[in-house]
Amino acid sequence: MNYLIYLAYGLVDIRSEAIYSILSYEAVRNPDSATRILVYTDDATAFQQILGTRADILYPTITAEQWQAWRGAANKVYLLKVGVLEHAAANYPGNLLFLDTDTIWRQDPAPLFKRIEKGHFFMHQNEGRLIVGNTLSRKVYRHLQGQEWESGGHTLRITPETELFNSGVLAFRSDKAYLLREVMALAEQLYAAYNKHMMEQLAFSLRLAAEGPIADVPEYLWHYWNLKEARPAITRVVNIYAQQSLDALLLHLQQLELPSLHQQELAYRNLPSWQRTWRKLTGRRWTMPALAP
């Protein structure tokens, strides 16, 4: 069995993003697909009011105590996905494809599931070597280089060749779930060593890479992680058009043009620092346009 897995805990804006992502998947999926969707949320009713009650969308029941336990010793919301994946592997064995809510599907993931079944690991995108990455990546490299951690019989080190993968997608076969305890333990050590939000994705990157190659999947979906300011607009669209057909709701969400805005902001973000500074000084820095529903 193939499973898409969403974690939509807490904010209403996160639920709105998840609804958009699910609708975008419905638009590209093969009608004959038997893939099921697992939505880990603290408000299943909010989803069912819009998507209806469907056999192919499941809402596992998670207690408040379990949600808190999944934050780990580091007490980080980023670590919830480790607990979610462990729960999914134990209760819904098969090919697991977890994705963040701020994602928009571009094509049917059926080919990915075939490769997952063969034992491949996937994360969203290879962000390159830490040593030459963005400002935070370079800081992490400088702070952690030379340190090492034991995990699953492997000695993991930060070296000039260490690559960081974006954890907006995490995919593997459920019989690989034993790795998740090791990822959690490693992440807690990394947070203790250098308390930066990206330690969860670094833990996945290090531990999975020690097990086998990691492939990335940017051609399958847009991951607009850099557009947090768009969240209220997504929620407004969902609130206004949720009572129309799901096709109409998806059309209105698509009119926000988030993939284009995502690329525009990334292009600005990736400019040399002197160019960004010059644009700021001349009033030409990139800003999020007003998004009307």
Automatic annotation (TrEMBL):
It holds the Pfam family Nucleotid_trans. It comes from the Bacteria. Gene3D superfamilies: Spore Coat Polysaccharide Biosynthesis Protein SpsA, Chain A. Transmembrane segments: none annotated. Residues 94-191 form the Nucleotide-diphospho-sugar transferase domain. This is Nucleotide-diphospho-sugar transferase domain-containing protein. It comes from Hymenobacter perfusus.
